[in-house]
Amino acid sequence: MTAPRASDVPAPMRRICQRLRAAGHGAYVVGGCVRDLLLGRSAADWDVATSALPEAVQALFPRSIPTGLKHGTITVLDGDTQVEVTTFRSEGAYADGRHPDRVTFGVTLDEDLARRDFTVNALAFDPETERLVDPHGGQRDLAARLLRAVGDPVARLCEDGLRVMRAARFAATLEFELDPATEAAIPAALGSLARVSQERVRDELVKLLGARTPSRGLGILARSGALAVILPELAEGIGQVQNRYHHHDVWTHTMATVDATPAGDPPDPVRRLSALLHDVAKPRTAAPREDAPGEFTFYRHDLVGAELSETILRRLRVSNRDRERVVAVVAHHMFWYTPEWTDSAVRRFVAKVGEGLLPDLFALREGDVVGRGRGEDPDVELGELRARIGRVLEEDQALTVGDLAIKGGDVITALALRPGPVVGELLRALLELVLEDPSLNDRDRLLALLPEVHANGLTNLHATRAKNLP
What we know:
Blueprint: H1 11-22, E1 27-30, H2 32-39, E2 47-50, H3 54-60, E3 64-68, E4 73-78, E5 81-87, E6 89-91, E7 103-105, H4 109-113, E8 124-126, E9 131-133, H5 138-144, E10 146-147, H6 153-159, H7 162-173, E11 177-178, H8 180-184, H9 190-194, H10 198-209, H11 215-224, H12 226-230, H13 232-235, H14 250-260, H15 269-277, H16 282-285, E12 287-288, E13 296-297, H17 301-315, H18 320-332, H19 343-353, H20 358-371, H21 378-394, H22 408-415, H23 421-436, H24 443-465
Parallel strand pairs: 2-5, 10-11
Antiparallel strand pairs: 1-2, 1-8, 3-4, 4-5, 6-7, 8-9, 12-13
C-alpha cells in the first residue's frame, strides 16, 4: 500500500481542512478517497469530516450550500470545486432501511467512523499532520484485499439496504473478496434492499458493470438472493439448462458474457447492460428439444427479451436514450452470418440494425461467443461480416430513406399526392429496391420507378421486374 501524503490531497480539500483547523476544529478527508490513496488509485470523490457543527461550517465558508443540513452536510464551494463537509455524527435506527431516524452531533471521529459501511471506507486522513486514523482495521483488510463490514455485519447491512449493492459493487470494482460473515449477512438485509429506490439500485448496478470483471459482484447478488430482489427476471436464469452450443446454464452464461463484452474506454454502461439482459427471456421461452433429450430451444427469446428489457429498464429509471439502445441491441443480437450472404443481404442487415448500433451489437456478440464457454474465437464468427460492413460503409451506399436521391416532396409532386403516411411507405419501398441494387439510387431512375411502386406495391414489383429493373 502507498502511504498517503498531504500533497496527494487536492488543494481545495487542504484549504478547507486548514481553515477548519485554524478555527479550532478537527478536520479530515474521509472514506473512499482515503482508501484510494492507500491503494495508489486516483480518487474520484473527496469528502471532509469535521468536529465543527454545521452552523460553524457555514459561518467559516460564506460560499456554501446547506445541501444536507439535517444530517450535518454542508457543500462548500472553493472556486469551481464543490466539497461536501459533514459534521462528525452518530446515527440512530434506520426505520426505512435507508436513512437514519436521527443523527447526533458532537461525537468523536472514532464514533463517526464506526457508523460507516466497510472497514476499507472507515478511514480518515489529516492532510496537515499526515495522520491516518484507522480504528477498524481497514489497512489490514486492504492488504488482504478483503471487503468486511464495520462491526456487526447483519446490523450494518440491515440498517441501509443499499449497502448490499455497495458490497457487490466494491467487490467487483476493487477486485476484493467479500468477507464470508459479511456475505452471510446479506439475506437478512434483503427486506431493507427491497425498500431502496430504483434509481439508487440502478446507479450501483451501473458502477458494478463498469468493473473489469463484473461477475465478481453479480455472483454475490445471485448467491445471496439479492438478484431475485432487484432483477427477478434475471434470477429465473439460474439453473436453466441450455443446449450443446453452451457450456453453462443461462445465468452463468450471462455473467461470462458480461465479463467478456468490451465495455469501451471510458466504460459505456449501455454495452454491459445489453450483455446483462441479452438472454433474459430464455427461461420464459425455453422448450424441450424433441430430438435432443435434456436440451432446450429458446425461439424468439431475442424479441421477448427486448420487451422484458424495456420493462426492466423503465423500472430502473434508465434514461430514454440508453433504454432504447439496450432494447435495440437485445432485439437484434441473434443474427447469424454465413459467407453465403449476398452483398444486398449485408446492406439490408446494416439498414435494419442501423449504423449507429453496430458497435454495441458487435461488442455484445463478442462477449456472447466467449460466454458460451466453448473456447470459440469471436473473430471467426464476426471478422468477415465486420470487413464486409466496413466496405459497405466506405462506399457510402444508401442505407436509410434519408440517403435516397429523392425526398418526400419529390414523391408528392411526381404522384400528385397529399402529405401523409403513404409517402413514407413509398420511400421505404424504394429503399428496399436500392438495397438490392445500389445503382438505382439516381433521381431520374427512382422517379421512373415511383408510378409502378405506387400502383403495384413492392411485392408485385419484385415479382414482375426483378430481372428488368431500369
